[in-house]
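[Meeting: bench + compute handoff]

Bench side (C.D.) handed over the final construct sequence. Compute side (W.E.) agreed to return the predicted structure before the next meeting so the bench team could plan truncations. Sequence as handed over:
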Amino acid sequence: MTPLTDGLTDQAPADPAATDDMLASQPVGYWTGLAHTTVTRHLRDAMARIDVTQPQYWVLNCVHSWPTAPSREEVADRLTPVADGPHEMPRVVDQLLHRGWLRADADRLHLTDAGEAARVRLRALVTELRAVVHEGVGDEEYAAALKVLRTMVADVQRAEGVT
């Protein structure tokens, strides 16, 4: 790693074989992208084996955790920022209604007994998968990594004038 004359660390090209002493010069976008892709694939592959998608799990959790029964629009508004486009969440709600895991009355969504049972099963699966992802990473270390990422996001948003 080469410090520049202004005290900043030079940005090196992404290197999957970078040693620990080289990590400070590695591009965060490469590593966060690789982590996102790898972890998401692992989770989605496990869910696919039981014919469920990650967005379906998000919707079940969202409906479960809402203080009162949410509308379709409220669920879509909450989850669209992490979805694959603006139309994904309404489609997922339709899938879950068709599957019988959600029911709608007066434009409000409710988990059915089958939906709650599926949510509980999926939560157990996600907890098992999280243990694999977090093996060798303590809670303090994990929280520290997320704090760093949260700070980086805030730094970029501030630089872009986003609040």
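W.E. noted at the follow-up: Residues 32 and 149 are 9 Å apart (CA to CA). C.D. will use this when planning the next construct.
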